[in-house]
Amino acid sequence: MAKRAAPEVNAGSMADIAFLLLIFFLVTTTIEKDSGINRKLPPMEESEEDVVIKQKNIFTILINGKDQLLVEEERMELKDLRKAAVEFLDNNGDGSCTFCKGKRDPKSSDNPDKAIISLKNQRETSYAAYVAVQNEVMGAYNELRNRRALEIGSQKGFPGMDFIKMQENYKDARWVGNKDKLKAVIDQIKEEIPQKFSEVID
After folding, report:
1. What's the CA gap between 43 and 197, in Å, rounded?
2. Is 95 part of a structural domain of the chain?
């Protein structure tokens, strides 16, 4: 008795189908971006001179292993940190800052250029608490920079534009204003209110 040949499946188009499915998934899948804290490390500089920093120009923040804040050796809630940092940066203890509106407390920072915020956290500190504190500190810098931008923006031809909006417009290719002039204003504000932030892990 003759054997019957098994029917064959035409697999010639299977590669095409697989290729089309691959393209479909590549086009429709959204890839999540890594989130983190934007930091630009300062360039290495060799200096033979020891820089002397007055203790009153250092604003110390400690986060312990239980995510509790100790600011200037006193307990503080996270919601109060930004205001305290703004008061420290804007203090103008030596009277050299022409745009500062602080209390001019002789026991606090001399001016925004000399003021340093120091963050120390323990290894047991949660990442969420660490990021939340960083956010409040950067919020304090942005608050002062936004205020300064609104003050000098009208004089420089950018009325009603805060510092964050200035940065967004400078990066926006569709913005039609004078980018060179805007960059000069941004650089001036960064120089007047520099972000001096140190971190230590215990």
Report:
1. 15
2. yes
Per DSSP, the residues of 28-43 read HPPPPPP------PPP
Domain around 143: 55-201
Q: What percent of the chain has pLDDT over 90?
A: 51
In this predicted model, what pLDDT tens digit does every residue of 79-138 receive, in sequence order? 999 999 999 999 999 989 999 999 999 889 999 999 999 999 888 889 899 999 999 999
Alpha-carbon distances of 183 from 51, 91, 162, 178, rounded to whole Å: 30, 27, 13, 9
Domain-embedded: residue 175: yes
Q: Are 42 and 116 in contact (CB under 8 A)?
A: no
Q: pLDDT digits over 32-42, tens only?
A: 765 556 666 55
**Strand partners of residue 201:** 121
3-state secondary structure of 189: helix
Q: Which amino acid is at 21?
A: L
- The total domain count for the chain is 1
| Assigned domain for 35 exists | no
Q: Residue 151 falls within a domain, yes or no?
A: yes
The owner of tokens 């503080």 is 76
Distance CA 3, CA 10 (A): 21
Q: Predicted confidence band at 2 (pLDDT cuts at 50, 70, 90)?
A: low
Answer with the residue of higher pLDDT: 22 or 12: 22
Cα angle 186-34-182, degrees, rounded to a multiple of 5: 10
